[in-house]
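Deviations from the work plan: none for this task. Representative record:
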Amino acid sequence: MKLNILLPILCLTSAVLAAPQSFDFKDPKGVNNAVFKLDAPLEAITGSASGISGTVTFDPENPGATKGKIIVATASLMTPNAMQKGHMHSANWLDVAKFPEITFEAKEVKNAKTEGDVTTANVAGTFTLKGVSKELTVPVRMTYLKDKLSARVPNMKGDLLVIRANFVIKRADFNLMPGQMEEKVSNTIELTLSIAGASPK
Amino acid sequence: MRALLRVLALTVLAAGLLFWLAAGANRGWTKTSVPVRKLDEVTGIEGIEYRKRFVPGLDFLGVVVLGAGALAGASFLCGNKRQRTESKP
């Protein structure tokens, strides 16, 4: 009799615990960032973007099923040189007014390997920049920090998911002055993503 | 006038060079803000904040050299009164 009651409760509890969690990447602490680097003759052009949002569905029991979308506000891209920033935001380059978002939508996780709280995988998805979408496979490192949300945001209980990724794109592929000024700004753009998402309970 | 322009050219060059050196002798482009990194200890992510600060670079030094050169060049266009008077028969 007791087993008849306990068994469904146990099954339900484990199902709830194993359910995929939704992580919100709009960071209240503002540390989430995407760094970009382009080679140039005098000095590499390096900058970062802080306007990051999006959601990722992550199941600690099945990281291979991870899906989601990360959005970077194009206007949040900064460089230490005001003139460079102006050029970068202009219609010739990113055209911030017309294309306010850069996005990556994860569709499939390949070769997921989990060790402790850390999962490394290749995430295939659609990267959209300046209105051009390309399929990319990005090596990603996901760190699941269980019950660590309160350590970051007081009075909030929940989990954190830290995602790190390094990958390279070609600016010509995304209509960023293709074939032009390559002697001044390299065609290759190195991107580094370091973001943390929260899943409150 | 000629001497004044040359002194001014030297002053501009020296002041520009000293300012560039004092600001860290940045051999890249001039910066109007600098990134400051802050570590989030829970996630291990280094957040990046930009603080307004003028850091002169090689382009600044180039403008200084051009300015000083223009002043020195202008000094040659100014007539030397004594020479002109002496050269008259």
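The longest helix of chain A spans residues 2-18.
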